[in-house]
UniProtKB/TrEMBL annotation, chain A:
Family as reported in the entry's similarity comment: Belongs to the binding-protein-dependent transport system permease family. HisMQ subfamily.
Domain ABC transmembrane type-1: 17-217
Protein name (database record): Glutamate ABC transporter, permease
PROSITE patterns reported for this sequence: ABC_TM1
Protein species of origin: Paractinoplanes tereljensis
SUPFAM superfamilies (UniProt xref): MetI-like
InterPro entries linked to this entry: AA_ABC_transptr_permease_3TM, ArtM/GltK/GlnP/TcyL/YhdX-like, MetI-like, MetI-like_sf
GO CC annotations on file: ATP-binding cassette (ABC) transporter complex
Superkingdom as given in the UniProt entry: Bacteria
TrEMBL record, chain B:
Region annotation (Disordered) ranges: 267-288
Pfam short name (any one): BPD_transp_1
GO molecular function: transmembrane transporter activity
Membrane spanning stretches: 21-38, 73-93, 114-132, 138-158, 195-217, 237-262
Lineage, top ranks: Bacteria, Bacillati, Actinomycetota, Actinomycetes, Micromonosporales
Keyword Cytoplasm found: no
Classification via InterPro entries: AA_ABC_transptr_permease_3TM, ArtM/GltK/GlnP/TcyL/YhdX-like, MetI-like, MetI-like_sf
Keyword Transport carried by entry: yes
Domain called ABC transmembrane type-1: residue spans: 69-255
Bilayer topology: Multi-pass membrane protein
Record-given protein name: Glutamate ABC transporter permease
PANTHER family: AMINO ACID ABC TRANSPORTER PERMEASE, MEMBRANE COMPONENT OF AMINO ACID ABC TRANSPORTER
Native source organism of the sequence: Paractinoplanes tereljensis
């Protein structure tokens, strides 16, 4: 434990997890917004929108996140000159958020779409029978019920997002995995302590979160 | 509920007109976006032939991309076999009647599922050599980390699968005098594997993608050789990343197509138990 009594080392640890927290927060918002829009596109009556949604999902779901983050930095920023902030560190952070959102949105879209499939057809038919439009059917009838069915898969997607946030370390952000690498390299005699503190932090936060989502999913599930 | 044409009425004249307008508006926005990308590329000279030409030369493929793809597939193949074994072992462990097997298996599975893969890889690659005083090969760092993570996810999938097998199956097996090991190995696991096949294959897609993390610890896989090294030689990051992405998408789409085919096949035969589905919730999705 004495590795972390050193104030510099403690600072590295805390900063690392703060970055993970910030990446997760912004990534969650981005992924949920884009993912829901994509899901709406994929079930809409307009073929171009459906095609766009399908293409997005197939491209980003099958590409490694490492490659996407790599592309955000070396492609978008270095080559094409897309800058999201004047501060170099914040710029890396926002590039990471873009990569994470774009990637995770594909999974969110698929989760919501399979949630829509759990809503019995009678619900949408009844909505149409009383004259609701596509938008009303979707937002008032189908999505609220689908949302309750997708709590569990969305939970595991968001937990995965939190773990995937470490990959933003590829483009030089000092998040937790880079922080651990640095601490290991400067304290070679306490490798296990350092690993168990870092891994343990993730485990202590994410395992109860997982069970929490499971409990919530059960509670919210539409009993049919 | 099948999504096509249940959410909306068959379009009449007004709906068709509205859909056409939406198509045009979205098409224009999309075209504008594509043009902006095209323009941006043009501004930075990214359409220059010299940047794309390397991909028409066979030496680029034989020196970088194909060896990289081989590295990716090699790590993925070893990790697939090991994580399937790890998954079955720990699923059985978690279902054991003995608490001293069940609890440690549960702890291992929950722990490795919660730890980010990259953290695990860094620990194995940079940390373990301090203990063993021998350098760790990047291939094994990638394979071990992938096995621990994906094996744990698969263990949960198998466990859910075993629990979805109707209890009559194991009762019948016990009734004809089978022992615990035989019931598990000959009755429950084969049926669970069929029920969870789509989930297992989509987890394998995740595994293939995660080999790309090997790039960070300098394992010679597709991202390292096909993007990083190609770009270092020809200065064409964007082009190299696009080619690599197409290869990844091709490999993973093939795996996904196999998963879909398998899932249709098991459904048609009607023999496999359905994947468990507690009231209104979806379970058994792969973890990205």
């Amino acid at each position: 434990m004495d590795v972390f009594s050193d104030s510099y080392n403690l600072d590295v640890y805390v900063t690392g997890f703060l970055w993970i927290l910030k990446l997760t927060a912004a990534g969650t918002v981005g992924a949920l917004v884009i993912g829901t829009l994509l899901a709406a596109m994929r079930v809409s009556p307009v073929p171009v929108l459906r095609g766009f949604g399908t293409a997005w999902v197939n491209i980003f779901r099958n590409t490694p996140l490492t490659l996407i983050i790599f592309f955000c930095y070396f492609g978008l920023y270095s080559t094409l000159g897309v800058t999201l902030s004047d501060n170099l560190e914040l710029n890396n952070y926002w590039l990471g958020v873009v990569g994470l959102s774009v990637y995770t949105a594909a999974f969110v879209c698929e989760a919501i779409r399979s949630g829509i499939n759990t809503v019995p057809a009678g619900q949408a038919e009844a909505a149409r029978a009383i004259g609701m439009t596509f938008r009303q059917t979707l937002t008032l009838i189908v999505l609220p019920q689908a949302g309750r069915a997708v709590v569990a898969p969305l939970g595991s997607i968001l937990i995965a997002l939190c773990k995937n946030a470490t990959i933003v370390g590829t483009i030089g952000l000092m998040e937790s995995s880079n922080a651990m690498k640095d601490l290991i390299n400067s304290n070679g005699d306490k490798v296990f302590t350092i690993f168990f503190i870092f891994a343990g932090t993730f485990a202590i936060v994410l395992i109860p979160t997982g069970y929490g989502f499971g409990w919530l999913a059960n509670r919210l599930a539409v009993k049919r | 509920m099948s999504t096509d044409a249940v959410l909306y009425d068959h379009p009449g004249p007004r709906a068709r007109a509205r859909n056409r307008i939406l198509t045009v508006v979205f098409g224009v926005v999309l075209a504008g976006l594509l043009y902006w990308i095209y323009h941006r590329f043009d501004e930075k000279g990214q359409w220059a032939g010299s940047l794309w030409k390397p991909f028409t030369q066979s030496s680029t493929w034989t020196d970088y991309i194909l060896p990289g793809l081989q590295g990716t597939l090699q790590a993925a193949a070893i990790a697939m076999v090991l994580s399937l074994a790890f998954g079955i072992l720990f699923a059985v462990g978690r279902l054991s009647d003995h608490w001293w097997v069940r609890i440690p298996s549960g702890v291992v599975v929950e722990f490795f599922r919660a730890v980010p893969l990259l953290l695990m890889m860094f620990f194995i690659f940079f940390g373990i050599p301090f203990v063993t005083e021998k350098p760790m090969s990047p291939l094994w760092a990638v394979v071990i980390a992938l096995t621990l993570y994906n094996g744990s996810v698969l263990a949960e999938a198998f466990r859910a699968g075993v629990r979805s097998v109707p209890s009559g199956q194991s009762e019948a097996a016990y009734a004809i005098g089978m022992r615990k090991g035989q019931v598990m190995g000959q009755i429950l696991i084969p049926q669970a594997a069929r029920a969870m096949l789509p989930v297992i294959v989509s987890q394998l897609v995740v595994l293939v993608k995660d080999t790309a993390l090997g790039y960070i610890i300098s394992y010679s896989e597709l991202l390292q050789l096909g993007v990083n090294n190609v770009a270092a030689n020809f200065g064409n990051v964007i082009q190299a990343a696009m080619v690599a992405a197409v290869i990844y998408i091709a490999v993973n789409s093939t795996l996904t197509a196999v998963a879909g085919w398998l899932s249709r096949r098991t459904r048609r035969s009607g023999k496999a138990p359905r994947a468990p589905r507690p009231a209104g919730a979806l379970v058994g999705t792969a973890e990205p």
